Amino acid sequence: MMLTGKTIVVTGVSSGIGAETARTIKRQGGTVIGVDRNPAGEAVDSFFQADLSSRDSIDALVASLPHGIDGLANIAGVPPTAPPEVVVAVNVVGLKYLTEKLVSKMSENGAIVSIASLAGVGWADSVPQIRAAEGLEFDQIPDFCREHDIDEQRSYFFSKEAVIVWTLQNRWTWRDRGIRINAVSPGPVETPILADFVKTLGARVEEDMRVMDRPGRPSDIAPVVAFLLSDGSRWIRGVNIPADGGMNSYILSHKHNL
Fold first, then answer.
1. How many Å apart are CA 85 and CA 82, to the nearest integer?
2. CATH classification at residue 16
3. Which of 183, 242, 178, 251 minimizes the C-alpha distance to 216?
4. Within a domain: residue 26?
5. Active site residue ranges
6. Dihedral sign, CA of 238, 226, 160, 137?
7. Which Gene3D superfamilies match (predicted)?
8. Could you list the residue range(s) of the whole structural domain that residue 178 is in?
9. How many structural domains compose the chain?
10. Which of 23, 29, 82, 95 is the most exposed place for a label (fewest CB within 10 A)?
11. Is 16 inside any structural domain?
């Protein structure tokens, strides 16, 4: 089994992709440390409640976690129906802060995997905004959102663009310890927050749903995350893998008149 003997921290473990990833890790022989705001299900070996929009909560979480962590699955996220400040705090600033704090407790040759999104496919057009968010602190988020027009329609797209770019940038950051980082970008997935995406993002998601043969399922995404956490992915670094039923290829084909 690919994850036998490995201890993996999974955020957002209480539902959706996070819960399915925990189950997949367990089936593959791993030990799951679950993290979420809400109580976890059965597929965890230990559980820590934390609010990833809070620096203090993340500090307390990291202090409580053991050394010898083999992988971190950054799956926790909030939908675009949340206030823009919360979307940026959880999906970008909290994700990055937790990862950077947790690296000191990770084993050699560990793996970091973050859930991005098909919504981040246009990251190359947003580099100035993304660069402006580098080093962003929690208390600076409201001003940043106002200054850079990160509103309800923009916040989710921006957050996922930023995660993809951050993954690319950190491909070799922890190379001296063999720690690698990658991302997975799902398309629309049948989770408890799919309705929030359709409601807020409207036409863009509806168009995607018409082109796709079906929405994704957590069970389509979790095995990709598990592979990136396993030793079989040790030569994959700084990569964003689309797991979207072909939607990324569809967008690129249209963009380049293919």
1. 8
2. 3.40.50.720
3. 242
4. yes
5. 156
6. negative
7. NAD(P)-binding Rossmann-like Domain
8. 7-255
9. 1
10. 29
11. yes
